[in-house]
Amino acid sequence: MRVLLTGGSGFIGSHVAVALAAAGHEPLIVDDLSNSRGGVVERIRELARMPIPALVADVRDEASVSEFLAAHGRVDAVVHLAGLKAVGESVADPVRYYDVNLSSTLAVLRLMSAHGIDAMVFSSSATVYGSAGTMPLAEDGAVGAGIANPYGRTKYMIEEILRDVCAAEPSFRCTALRYFNPVGAHPSGLLGEDPLGVPNNLMPVVAKVAGGILDSVSIFGTDYPTRDGTGERDYVHVQDLARGHVRALEELAPGFDAVNLGTGEPASVLDVIRAYGDASGREIPYRLNARRPGDLAVAFADVEKAARELGWTAELTLADACRDDWRWRQATAD
Ligand code: UFG
Taking the CA of residue 126 as centre, how many other CA atoms within 13 Å lie in the half-sphere pointing to its CB? Predict the structure, then answer.
């Protein structure tokens, strides 16, 4: 299958590109490199052991992307990962988030229609379940109510757009993959989450404390009704996520579908700090702080649908993710 990856140089996209190549597919990449380190495309090609075509462009530059698609023969499917993803930034600048994430998706849909492509895997998020869900979060549960920020609402809105497209075009095949908390890195140490940005998510913060760049981890909330009082999440290794995209592409069927990608096993903030401390051999100091507004106590996936429909189950552990993340950060330390 020849597959266009929008945002194919990003954290998840880069791992998906390598996994697609390993499964015998042909990835093509469009990415504006706005959130990637230099050289990532070369590293993807090295790991994929193939000359992956890549265009440096914003997907909203439809003329350039159209020319790129026309130059590379028939494309069978799109994995749409391009978009902005910083929760805090989306609260501060909602107009930019709605503009970029929604208009990128509309541009991709127009390009697909112009080039006769009717298959898409969309990079969605467990954030679409909002605050109303019961654990474990299952795909047939309510979505849209109580989403805590504009970033999350863009993911929900895009899912709704894709449902409408599927209703209008019966041959259109689309699966939204609802990621839980993506962590880890490629075991080679060549790909991982961009360590240059200001971290907000837990594991990048913990990693910077392990690396001595930050003094301590601030734990947001110690009075949740959980095993140890700290928030619990479902941390899924990016290599497992990448395999999930390959399976989703291979199983695409007419209509809209949504599938969770998670482990089904909640881990607390203290579990993550302990696991990273073990993986890095470093002490990880932490401070106990107040809850972060908008956070849920617990969020983890019902993983039954992914197993049934995609034959996919997460195989890697939190310890694997910490080990691979630490290896990547050591390899990229300036
Ligand atoms: N946390 C801390 N200290 C920190 C950062 C996080 O204690 O410095 C805690 C949070 O309170 C939470 C857990 O660590 O309990 C995980 O927080 P993250 O910010 O890493 O992740 P979230 O679960 O808040 O959000 C993530 C992604 C979103 C996505 C959502 C889906 O960042 O993009 O999962 O559920 F939408």
Answer: 27
| pLDDT tens by residue, 113-147 | 999 999 999 999 999 999 988 999 999 999 999 99
Q: Is the dihedral of CA 315, 7, 300, 194 positive or negative?
A: positive
151 part of the active site: yes
Neighbours of 247 (CB within 10 A): 20
The crossing angle, in degrees rounded to 10, of helices 62-71 and 94-114 is 40
Angle at alpha carbon of residue 171, lines to 137 and 252, rounded to 5°: 45
Report the predicted TM-score, pTM, of the whole model to 2 decimal places. Answer: 0.97
Q: Whose CA is nearest to atom 18 of ligand 1?
A: 201
CA distance linking residue 319 with residue 314, whole number of Å: 13
Catalytic residue among 97, 129, 151, 224: 151
Q: What is the DSSP string of 133-153?
A: --SSB-TTS--STT--SHHHH
Which atom of ligand 1 approaches the CA of 220 most closely?
7
* Amino acid residing at 118: D
Residue 106: count of CB within 10 angstroms of its CB: 14
Pocket of ligand 1 (CB under 6 A): 85, 87, 125-127, 152, 181, 200-202, 205, 217-221, 231, 233, 269, 292, 295, 299
Atom of ligand 1 nearest to the CA of 291: 11
Residue type, 317: T
Exposure pattern of 7-28 as b/e (b: 16+ CB <10 Å)?
A: bbbbbbbbbbbbbbbeeebbbb
Q: For residue range 34-80, list pLDDT tens digits in order.
A: 988 779 999 999 999 999 999 999 999 999 999 999 999 999 999 99
